[in-house]
Amino acid sequence: MSRKLILYISMSLDGFIATPDDSLEFLNPFMIDSEDYGYSEFTSTVDTYLVGRKTYDVVCTLTGGTFPPAEQFQCYVLSKSRSGSENGITYYNGNLNELIDQLKNSSGKHIYCDGGGHLVRELLEIDAIDEFIITVLPILLGKGKRLFPGADSGLLSLHAHEPKKYGNGLIQLRYSCENR
Length: 180
Description:
Layout: E1 5-12, E2 16-18, H1 39-43, E3 46-52, H2 53-62, E4 74-78, E5 84-86, E6 89-92, H3 96-104, E7 110-113, H4 117-125, E8 131-137, E9 145-146, E10 158-160, E11 164-165, E12 171-177
Parallel strand pairs: 1-7, 1-8, 3-4, 3-7, 4-6
Antiparallel strand pairs: 2-9, 5-6, 8-12, 10-12, 11-12
């Protein structure tokens, strides 16, 4: 069985993953020490991490220049302007479809995509996402960076799994592609 590419991400009820200025502060009220919303369980099933360069830069800014996923996963940052490897990160600026094929057909655990929206759009356009795990926060941002910014992927039939509901209003949705 080949590896799955799984989008695991949070968004506001109105579909935003960040504010217009790339802030993620709206997530802070939902960060509870005793609750990881299934993150540990999920990350035990993956060993490779994909992220867009803008999201990578935001995370590095928030963490003082480090990129925590590089300590746990083989990390690929999709970038048009950077190449090479450093600090556990491989910058990739080649053909995305070729990278996904290579990763899916190599041995290992599943592949974790953490956004951003432009990378998600590109992955949808090449029909690469096998599963969606989206945690919806009970908040309306009104504007910002969309999770699905105008993807032209055509019809994608999904199978809905039982949602997970949390006491603070978060709902985690899980969908898998029906044709896989």
